[in-house]
Design a protein that fits this description.
0% strand; 7 helices
Amino acid sequence: ASSHYEQFQLRKVCQTLMELSQAGNTYFDSKKPWTLAKDPSKKEELSTVIALSIECIKSLALIACPIIPASAQKIWHMLGFKGELSKENWRDVLSKTVPSGQKLNDPEILFRKIEDEEIEAQIAKLGEKLKRKK
């Protein structure tokens, strides 16, 4: 993804984000950590699944940071980091794993659903502005 940014290929960055997100989601769903958590003999496997899922989320935040910085920062904070993700070194973030035992913060909603009424109101405002310009 860094090379796509360097070449200003934002469409490819977004594609990489979506592909990584889908791969992470597929991995998480296929490993079924909620089932692993019920079996004490699967504790090590559960720890691996959670750790890899967290690393995937960390990578998603890093890749998304230049495009959606506020949401990426929220993810960074949820992962238990205190600093600003936008000020971190790309290679350093990728090369270091989230420390074992790091306390994760409470999840936050990253995006809110925009209701149809809100969209219609904005379209109406735009229509009014266009009429005034004529």
